[in-house]
Amino acid sequence: MDNQSQTQGNGASCHYIEWYYILLVSSRAIALSLDPLFFFVPVIHEDKKCISEDKKMWINAIFWRSVLDFIYLVHFVVKFYKEKKEEKNSQWYLWMWFMFDILVILPIPQVLMSNILSEMRRAKYTNNVTILNAVILIQYGPRILRIYLSLKKLEELKNIPINIRASFNFFLYLLAGHVFGAFWYFFSTQRLTSCWRQACLHQVGCVQGSFNCDHRFGNLSALQDFCPIGSTNTSTFDFGIFLQARQSRILESTDFPKKLIYSAWWGLRNLSSFGSNLQTSTYIWENAFALGISIFGLLLFLYFLGNLQVYMQRSASKHVEKSGEGDNLA
Question: Where is the Ion transport domain (predicted)?
Answer without folding.
Answer: 16-315
